[in-house]
Amino acid sequence: MAEPRWLDDRQSRAWLGYRRMRLLLDAQISRDLHRDSGLSDADYDVLSALTARQDRRWRLQELADRMLWSKSRLSRHISRMEERGLVSREECATDGRGAVIVLSEGGWRAIQEAAPPHVESVRRHLIDLLTDEQLDALGDISDIVLSNLASDDA
Length: 154
Description:
Residues 11-147 form the HTH marR-type domain. Keywords: DNA-binding. InterPro entries: HTH_MarR-typ (IPR000835), MarR/SlyA-like (IPR039422), WH-like_DNA-bd_sf (IPR036388), WH_DNA-bd_sf (IPR036390). By secondary structure, the chain is mostly helical. It has a domain at 39-125: Winged helix-like DNA-binding domain superfamily/Winged helix DNA-binding domain (Arc Repressor Mutant, subunit A). Helices cover 68% and strands 8% of the residues. It is built from six helices and three strands; from the N terminus they run ααβααββαα. Helix 1 (9-37) packs across helix 5 (105-125), helix 2 (41-51) crosses helix 5 and helix 3 (60-67) crosses helix 4 (71-83). The mean pLDDT is 94.
């Protein structure tokens, strides 16, 4: 068996810093989102995905795939969102077993109200702290890692 390739001090600093930053940044932005709008991260992800579609509809399985959730987990979350009037669920016209999630007027209002303070939180806690060069580097790093992860899935 090959000897593990342990991280050196520089690599360890980058890795551990990234992990701590991600945890704290996600937690802070989630707290701000909930405080400002009453929405959870998952609520916001569903609503923003629906607004990205011209017809404001998404098949449940496709939305679950996008969110990297199981279909059953997303279905339970959608049920809670339905109770709050944010979305509705319809049968799929082409597949009787499938469901289509539809953005409701209440969901449209919720995402319109939530987006401005959410973007301000993202700016305050990340974007505005970085130089243009750092933003470019972060974008490049993200592209490289995501491309590698996508090729690992293939």
